[in-house]
Write a structure and sequence with these properties.
This is Transcription regulator hth arac- type. It comes from Lucifera butyrica. InterPro entries: Ada-like_dom_sf, Ada_DNA_repair_Zn-bd, Homeodomain-like_sf, HTH_AraC, HTH_AraC-typ_CS, Me-P-triester_DNA_alkyl-Trfase, Tscrpt_reg_AraC-type_HTH. The chain is α+β, with helices and mostly antiparallel strands. Helix content is 49%, strand content 7%.
C-alpha cells in the first residue's frame, strides 16, 4: 500500500475482502444503488462493472453518490462494530438492575444474540453477562458505602436475584464479602 497509487485491481481486491487496512485510502461507489462505501463495508459485494472508485468522500459526493448508512464513509472515525458495542453498553447501563434478556437487547440492536455477544467480548474483553455483573457489583459497592440499607436490600437494589449469587459475585470481584467491604475493606470492583 504505502504512498504508491493503488491500481483498480488492488482496490477491487480490498473491496471483495472487506479489507479495513484500505479504509481512508479510497472509497467505492455502486452505480446501481447510488451509494458509496469504505473498502471494509460488510454490505453485499457489488458487481464489479457497477463500481467506481474515488479518492475522497468529497469526490464521491460531488459525483452524486450518498454515503452508506452501514459503514458511514462520511464519518472519519465511524466503526459499526464499536458503535454497536457502545449502544449495547448504554442499554445495559440502563437495565442492569433488572432481569436482563440478551435476546431482546440483540433484537434492539438489529443483530443476533451470538453476533452481539461475540462483538461485545472482542471489544470489551468480557461478555455482556459479565458486564452486567460488574455493573451490579459496582452499584452494590456504592450502596454499601453510602447507605445503611441491609445487605439483602442492597443485593436487590443492585439487580441480583438471589443473596447467594450476590455474595458469590461480590467476593469474586472484590475479594471481600459485602460485610467486609462495608466495614472499610479495600476490595476492587
Amino acid at each position: 500500500m504505502g504512498t504508491m497509487a493503488l491500481t483498480e485491481r488492488e482496490k477491487w481486491e480490498a473491496v471483495t475482502r472487506c479489507n479495513k487496512a484500505y479504509d481512508g485510502l479510497f472509497f467505492y461507489a455502486v452505480k446501481t444503488t447510488g451509494i458509496f462505501c469504505r473498502p471494509s463495508c460488510k454490505a453485499k459485494t457489488p458487481v464489479g462493472k457497477n463500481v467506481l472508485f474515488f479518492d475522497t468522500v468529497e469526490a464521491a459526493l460531488a459525483a452524486g453518490f450518498r454515503p452508506c448508512k452501514r459503514c458511514r464513509p462520511d464519518m472519519p472515525a465511524f466503526d459499526p462494530e464499536q458503535d454497536l458495542v457502545r449502544s449495547a453498553q448504554a442499554i445495559l447501563r440502563q437495565v442492569y438492575t433488572k432481569p436482563v434478556d440478551l435476546n431482546i437487547i440483540a433484537r434492539q440492536l438489529n443483530t443476533s444474540p451470538s453476533h452481539f455477544t461475540r462483538l461485545f467480548k472482542r471489544s470489551t474483553g468480557i461478555t455482556p453477562r459479565q458486564y452486567i455483573m460488574n455493573s451490579r457489583v459496582k452499584k452494590a459497592c456504592s450502596l454499601l458505602r453510602q447507605t445503611n440499607a441491609g445487605i439483602l436490600e442492597i443485593a436487590c437494589l443492585a439487580g441480583f436475584q438471589s443473596a447467594s449469587n450476590f455474595h458469590r459475585c461480590f467476593k469474586e470481584q472484590t475479594g471481600l464479602t459485602p460485610q467486609e467491604y462495608r466495614k472499610g475493606g479495600d476490595g476492587e470492583p
